Amino acid sequence: MPSSDLQIDWLKCFVAVVDAGSLSGAAHEVNRSQSAVSMQMKKLEAALGRPLLSRGPRHLQLTDDGQTLLGYARRMLALHAETSEALCSVGLIPEEAEVLSKQPCALTHLAEAELTEACCLTLSELLCHEAALVGSVHLSLHELTAPLACA
User: Fold this and answer.
1) Between the CA of residue 118 and those of 60, 70, 72, 143, what are the distances in Å?
2) H-helix segments, the chain
3) What total of structural domains would you count in the chain?
């Protein structure tokens, strides 16, 4: 195995692709573009040095290596979520960080309610947090239809 650094975001994309049965379906699930999901899959396969999916014109199928990884990936994601919740419950992770960490592309897909909860964070703090989660930041600004109530 060329690299042992398996990033959580890669595993989230991998499980989403398997569950959705397609890159486009997975993209919807993880709030990313299809090309971003494809890139995450390529990074995961490169890190492992093996293909995880066999790609046909209209289907994706797990390889034997993909099947082996799937069970571990599900367990790792469940443990990651459990750890985040436990750390948040004892105050080691602020609740705002927990809200952000539940989505792989948190900045571009925060709901207005989540923005209200996290409004005490500055934009630069949000950008830094996002970069730490996924390694890069893609920012898209949209006009709100109603004013945001930050206390």
Assistant:
1) 38, 33, 32, 18
2) 8-20, 23-30, 34-48, 64-89, 95-101, 106-109, 112-118, 123-134
3) 2
Residue 87 shares a structural domain with residue 118: no
Could you read off the pLDDT of 78-136 as tens digits, one per residue? 998 888 888 877 777 665 554 444 444 444 344 443 444 444 455 666 666 666 666 66
Is residue 37 within 8 Å of residue 84, measured between CB atoms? no
Range of the domain at 87: 1-93
> Taking the model in full, what pTM does it have?
0.61
My answer on whether 40 and 9 are in the same domain is yes
**Cβ neighbours, 10 Å, residue 76:** 16
